[in-house]
Every structure is written in C-alpha cells, then in structure tokens.
Amino acid sequence: MINPVLLCGGSGTRLWPLSRRSYPKQFARILGDQSLFQASAQRLSGEGFAAPLIVTGDPFRFIVTEQLAQTEKSPQGILIEPEGRNTAPAVLAAALWLAERDADALMLVAPSDHVIPDADAFRGAVEAAVPRAQAGDLVMFGIAPTRPETGFGYLELTQDADATADVPQSLTRFVEKPDATRAEEMLAAGNYLWNAGIFLFTASTVIDAYRAHAPALLESVGAALAEGTSDLGFTRLDVAAWEQAEEISIDYAIMEKASNLAVMPYTAGWSDLGGWDAVWLESQPDSEGNVCSDNATALSCNNTLLRSETPDLEVVGIGLEDLVVIAMSDAVLVAHKSEAQRVKDAVSALKERGAPQAVQLPRDYRPWGWYESLAIGGRFQVKRIVVNPGAALSLQSHHHRSEHWVVVEGTARVTVGDEVKLVSENESVYIPLGAVHRMENPGRLPMVLIEVQTGSYLGEDDIIRYEDVYARE
Question: If you placed Cys at 12, which of 24, 41, 190, 232 could pair as Cys (CB 3.0 to 4.6 Å)?
C-alpha cells in the first residue's frame, strides 16, 4: 500500500493576486472545477493507495479537511507545522509519523500544487518505481523536459541511462537552475530531466538517510512529533522543538548526499504552475494563442492570458500581445509573459508598502465558511458572511463594536446573552456592544447574512472567545 504524503504549506506568490498567503494556489481553482490540492488527492487515490497524510500550516487545516470532504475523501492524518521550514523537516515529520505505524510504509511525497493531466500514466510510473523503493532506494521522479526551462533544477542521468524508460534509472548529479544557454544544451543532450520534487521511498529508508546526513534534523523533528499534541484530529507539532529544525529542502539535506538514489522518468505531462506563463501554457490557448476566463474578452490579441476572478468585473483586452492580465476585486496584475517570474518581486514591494493585498484575499476563509468586506468607513464596516451547513461561529463578544445581522439566505440560529432564537430570511437581529453572542447554521444549505459593524475599532482581533468548536485561541 502506497501512502501519499501531500505537502501543502506554500504561499504561491508567483500566482498573485489569485494566490496569496491567506489562501495559496494549491487551494484555488486555477484549472478546472477542482483546486490543485483536490486534484492531487484524487490522483493519488484508488487501488493500491492509502488515505493521504497531509502536512500543512495552522491557517489551512480546516481548508484541507473541507476540500477533502468535497471529494469524499478522509485523511489518515494531518500534521500541523508551527511554521514553514521547507521540505526536509516536513518530509521527516511525515516519515516518523508513518514509521510509528509501519516502519516499512511506502510513502509517496508530492507537492499539492502541481498539474499532472494523465493520472493513470502517473500512477503507472509510481507502480513501476515501487520495487526500487522497497529494495531500499530513494526514488526521485524526473520529468522529460519539453523546452529549455531556466526555472527548474535538473537531474543528470548516467550516459547509459534512458531518459524515456519505464523503469527507474541511475543518477549522475543534480544540476542547479541553469541559464538559457545551458538549458538549451541540456535539452539537446537528452539525458537530463526536470527535478519534480516528487519522491517514493519507505519510511525506514528515508529516516536512515536523515540519520546519516542530517542527524540534527532527526533530533529536532523527532522531538516536535513526540512532544506534539492532538487537536480535533490534527497533530500539532511542538513549537519549541520545531523552531530548532533547520530550514532546508530535502534535496540539499538528503538527496544530494545520498548514494542510494534512483530516478523514475515521467514523460506524460507535468507542470508546477510556477507562474502565470505556465497557467497560460496549461490552459490550452486558442488558435490566436489567447486564454480567456469567463467575464474576459480578447479583441485582436495574441498569446495573451485574460482572467477576471470577479463575476461582476469584465476584462477586455484590445490589441495585446504576450501579456498576462489578472483582475480581482482588490488588485489587478498586468505583466509581459516573459516577466511572469517577477510577480513575487511585486508581492515583496507591496509588503514593504504595507499593502494588505500582498498577503490577504478580499474573501477571508474560516473553519465555518467565509466572509468579505463590502464597504468600510471610519466607524463602520459592512460584510457578507457565508456559514456552511451545520457550522457555527465561536461564542464571543467585542469590546469596541456592535453588530446588526440581516439574514438574506437560509436560517440562522442566533445566541445573544441568554436568548437563543431562529432568524430567517428578511429578518434581522441586533448585537449590542459587549454582548456575548454566537451565530450557527442549522440548515442543510449555506446561510448568508449581511453584517453591519459600528464602533470605534473594527479589527478582527477585537474578539473574546468563550467557546469554539474549532479550538481556536
């Protein structure tokens, strides 16, 4: 049985403004009706696969469970990193967790934000790599390059290896991201593959590799797991021990030092969606090379990506060439496709200015649903709040604001002080300043209400929680 280990703690800044720290690209619907995370979970499922083990951050733990539930899947475990420390600590935590249950557990480690269109072909490649992994090798997956890409690291195979083989091959060395000339040379040579960051090995094999090449990590991550706590089905790694773990990738910590490596070539299509140029390429441009979302129109354009992420916002391009235009309600990106990798620089510039758009989506996702601000003034704020069926906000109060709720869809069960009542569509309720209150959705459909806040301070940190089914502080 293969245990998928899905890593989903990244921030995905190169796909800003759609992907932001508060809701990174793996959870967004970029291609098709599923998020990249959901597509990854679906791909690594079925006969021969166990339920996935997820490694993620605290802000995303309920997004993970909700999106898995939408695909009718349950995880075998969810490990919560106190903070991102790159892939080496994350993979080791998953290996130690699995080894507690089965030392020889096969683990397939994969990022949750990649695109692999042919799921059957990929599962076939994984199955072909299983014997080498069971024999004690660390198997890496190498992607057959289709262009002289400068944004990926490469794997150089031995001269007698076959880069199109359907069984694992021998590795000569790792190659850092090349310049354009070197990338052309490697593409022509034919014995180089892109490093996909996907691995297959047994838990005991990779733990032994850490013991040999990164013993300090084994100590700190082992302590973080041993001293971790269970919380609503999540495993929270210990903060103090985790802080001692070096922030380093598994390539640098283990793979570039290990001798028991093998490379499984994969030729059936793959993308890490590492920028909007990659999204354009994977979106099957039309005969003029254009890709347009709903609410986007291209007139006399060539090789252009136009996306509107807001239903009531139309994007129209006229006479554009080789451009990326991404429009959201609070931010618009316009970039030449050749400069798509510099989007992360724009995010850094926005952070320096203190612009909230750098990290925060206009829609704020919470364990119970989501909300968005519709209007903000000096002493008021208007929000749309959507509460999932059966979900409940915490029992809380505020020091600085009162609230007026108007239910526009569904029915809310509202607690104000000692009074509990149902509030239906077109009905409202007033929450005085300082009153202890809670909102719940007892129905089977999402409940939508409009909240009007008034007061001297309207920040999200003005919340005193008394009870919370999601165990938030």
Answer: 24
